[in-house]
Every structure is written in C-alpha cells, then in structure tokens.
C-alpha cells in the first residue's frame, strides 16, 4: 500500500511503500539507518541485514544523499521519533542515484546556501518553515471565508503607485509607462464598494535598496478591505485574524515548530485583544528609555523592538502623524495632525507585520490630499470616483506574509520564509 510519511500513523503494524529521498544515512555493523523524506515529513527507515539480504543491505549502505527510491516496510510505533513512528524496511527499489550532493550535513555559509536555494529547501528546517508558511496561508483563507469576505485579485501591473512613492519597478506597457504593484489596496477599496468585505493575497514589489533582515524586494501580502467599517472595528478584525493564524499553526504544525526549536509558550499567549499605544505615548516611552527621537519622526527597527519588549503580545501603535503616512488615511476627528491608522508590531523584535487605517471617504478632502502630494488627477480619477458614487466609511489593512512567518516560526531573517527570495543584488535562483 502506498502512503506518505504524514499519513503513516494510520498504518501502524502494516506494510506500506513510500516514495522518498534519502536525506542522510548511517550504519552500525549489520543495521543501516536511512533518514527519509517525501515532502510531507521525515522518518527513519531501519534495515537489518539478516532480514533484507546481503544485496539490498549493500545497496542501502552505498546510496548517495538525495537519491530517490521506493521503500517498503512495516510501520512501527516509536515514541523517540519526531513523527512517533519508524519504518522497519523490508525492501528498497532505487529510482535514481543522485550525483554528489553539494549541501552536506555540515555548516555552510549563507551565500552558498542562497546560491543553492533550490536544494536548500529540502533541508529539515527549511521544510518546516515552508510548511508553517503554508499553514498560515491555509488559515488565512479559512478565517476570511468564515467571516464572509470575498477573495479578489488586484492587478500586478499598474499605472501609478498606491502610496505615491518612487520606490517602484518601472516597465513599459506597450507605449505606456507601467509599474509593478507595491500594494493592491486601492483596487481592493473599489472591490469593497462592490462586494462589502474583500481580501487579496498576492505578490507585491518594492524597489527599496534595503539589506535588513526584515526586507525583501518581492513579498506577499494579505490585504483585506471593508466597507461600512471604522478604524476601531478594523483593529478587532486584525487582532482576531492574527490570533486565528497563530492558533492554527500551534494546532497543526507541532512537529515543524519542534524542528525549529520554537518556544511555543510565547505563541500560546497570543490571544485577542492586543494592547494599544498611541504614537504620542510611544514617543514619550522611547524618550524615557533614552532614545533620541522627536515627535514627527517615523520609527525604525530599534524603536519598534523597544516598544514590543514592553508587551508579551503584538501591540498596536495608533494615530501616527499625518505627514509620515499615506495620502489616503482619514484624519483623526479631534486632531488634524494625526490620522486614524495603526501598525501592529510583533513581539521578539520581528517588527511591523500589519499596517492599516481608516480611509478618507470625503471627496473634497481626498482632492486636497492629491494636491498636497502632487498626485496626477488623471491617474487617480478612478480612485476619486469611489468618493463620488456612494462613498461610505471604510477601513483596511495589509499583513506581510514573510515577516509573519518569520515571527511565528522564530526565523531570524525573512529570506528563509519565502521559497525563492528576491533581495538586493540577488535574482538567482
């Protein structure tokens, strides 16, 4: 019977066949131990020479790392094994004997591993990170579908910037200028006016020459947008969503978290509601902690980390100054110098994982913002139309998938949280 490592617990004491790759091996006299992987997990296969015969035993001992094979054996419960089972091998059938594998079970430099990213993905830790990423994506769809959101796909090629910045990748669209999208948000606002509550999940691009552990050139974002919803209601959606994905990973990725040696006690504390601190109070807190920062400046990584360390849950920093935020954010009703927005800062120094706001719904005020930011009326006319034809209060946010994966999995650098990272000076493989 063919099965997978993930399903092997359903076949205790039965004979099964796995299609697998040899991740590693060792032998001790008349016993060989094969570390096998099949994409769903890892398991140890044990060959006893007396049971499989001289020829099969010799084949197993001579197999090279990452060779592919069919392995047949009896599933045995073993509480010492990460999966809880091992395979008492009765037969092997070699599919392909691999050439000398470049990534051996030893330390390799980051640049070497990144050059071999297409192979590095096979390692146990990278496998665990990708499985956690997949679970976050699965849980995202589950949460928003359950809450009545409609999935909408915004374009990747756009005629203008979502935030009026210059950090865009330019390309030619026949005889016009076009750019790779840095956010689907504006299009999601249009979708929300049609469908009420919507979300997108797709790639975004920032031509930002940053080399920090938190930045990628190409990354994926989840961007919900909600009609008839104010800022405070949006914050509740955000904290419930984050709570949901963390709890899903804790429930469904126990083995992966163990492989990564993630301290799950800190994740178990992640339950809504999350604490909130205003930008004003955050500035005061940082100044009292000895940071040289004045009101009106944006926060850098050290500032976000210092604020996060004061809490054991993600923390919302609310009501940033208008001048350092995007043109579309709605002003605070009691102050014209700050806007109704929030950044959600993850614990343990992982930085901002969500940025969100209530959007301007007044046509005259949005026109004023166009003028202040020197935005092209022609390029943004369709966005203004949303305020002319049935405008309503609406809010939304964007969650960066890779930073969220890094935080939940306990991975230091976001380059390991996406299958093939695009970094400054790295477009290969």
UniProtKB/TrEMBL annotation:
Gene3D superfamilies: Bira Bifunctional Protein, Domain 2, Nucleic acid-binding proteins
PROSITE patterns for this protein: AA_TRNA_LIGASE_II
Record's subcellular location: Cytoplasm
Catalytic reactions of this protein: tRNA(Asn) + L-asparagine + ATP = L-asparaginyl-tRNA(Asn) + AMP + diphosphate + H(+)
Domain Aminoacyl-transfer RNA synthetases class-II family profile, first and last residues per copy: 130-429
Keyword Iron-sulfur listed: no
Major localization listed first in the record, in broad terms: cytoplasm
Group of enzyme by EC: ligase
Keywords: Aminoacyl-tRNA synthetase, ATP-binding, Cytoplasm, Ligase, Nucleotide-binding, Protein biosynthesis
GO MF annotation: an example: catalytic activity, acting on a protein
Domain of life assignment: Bacteria
One CC-aspect GO term: cytoplasm
EC number: 6.1.1.22
Subunit structure: Homodimer.
Family classification: Belongs to the class-II aminoacyl-tRNA synthetase family.
Protein name: Asparagine--tRNA ligase
Organism field: Alkalicoccus luteus
């Amino acid at each position: 019977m063919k099965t997978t490592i993930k399903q092997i617990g359903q076949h205790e004491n039965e004979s099964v066949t796995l299609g697998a790759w040899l991740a590693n091996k060792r032998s001790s006299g008349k016993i060989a131990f094969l570390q096998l992987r099949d994409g769903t997990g890892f398991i140890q296969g044990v060959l006893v020479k007396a049971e499989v015969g001289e020829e099969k035993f010799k084949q197993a001992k001579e197999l090279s790392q990452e060779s592919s094979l069919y392995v047949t054996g009896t599933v045995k419960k073993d509480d010492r094994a990460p999966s809880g089972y091992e395979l008492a091998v009765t037969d092997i059938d070699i599919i392909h004997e691999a050439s000398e594998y470049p990534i051996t079970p030893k330390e390799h430099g980051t640049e070497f591993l990144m050059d071999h990213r297409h192979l590095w993905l096979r390692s146990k830790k990278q496998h665990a990170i990708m499985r956690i990423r997949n679970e976050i994506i699965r849980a995202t769809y589950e949460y928003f579908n359950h809450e009545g959101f409609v999935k909408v796909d915004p374009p990747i090629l756009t005629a203008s910037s979502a935030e009026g910045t210059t950090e865009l990748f330019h390309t030619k669209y026949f005889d016009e200028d076009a750019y790779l999208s840095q956010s689907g948000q504006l299009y999601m606002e249009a979708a929300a006016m049609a469908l009420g509550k919507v979300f997108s999940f797709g790639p975004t691009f920032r031509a930002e020459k940053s080399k920090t552990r938190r930045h990628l050139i190409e990354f994926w974002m989840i961007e919900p947008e909600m009609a008839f919803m104010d800022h405070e209601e949006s914050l509740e959606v955000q904290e419930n969503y984050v709570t949901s994905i963390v709890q899903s990973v804790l429930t469904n990725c126990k083995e992966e978290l163990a492989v990564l040696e993630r301290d799950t006690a800190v994740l178990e504390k992640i339950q809504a509601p999350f604490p909130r601190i205003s930008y004003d109070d955050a500035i005061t807190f940082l100044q009292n902690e000895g940071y040289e920062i004045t009101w009106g400046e944006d926060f850098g990584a050290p500032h976000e980390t210092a604020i996060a360390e004061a809490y054991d849950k993600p923390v919302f920093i609310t009501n940033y100054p208008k001048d350092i935020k995007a043109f579309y954010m709605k002003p605070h009703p009691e102050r014209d110098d700050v806007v109704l927005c929030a950044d959600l800062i993850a614990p343990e120094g992982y930085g901002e994982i969500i940025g969100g706001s209530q959007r301007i719904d007044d046509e005259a005020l949005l026109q004023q913002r166009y003028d202040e930011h020197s935005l092209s009326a022609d390029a943004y006319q369709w966005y203004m139309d949303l305020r002319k034809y049935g405008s309503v209060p609406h809010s939304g946010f964007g969650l960066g998938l890779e930073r969220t994966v890094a935080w939940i999995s306990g991975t230091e650098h976001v380059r390991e949280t996406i299958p093939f990272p695009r970094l400054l000076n790295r477009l290969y493989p």
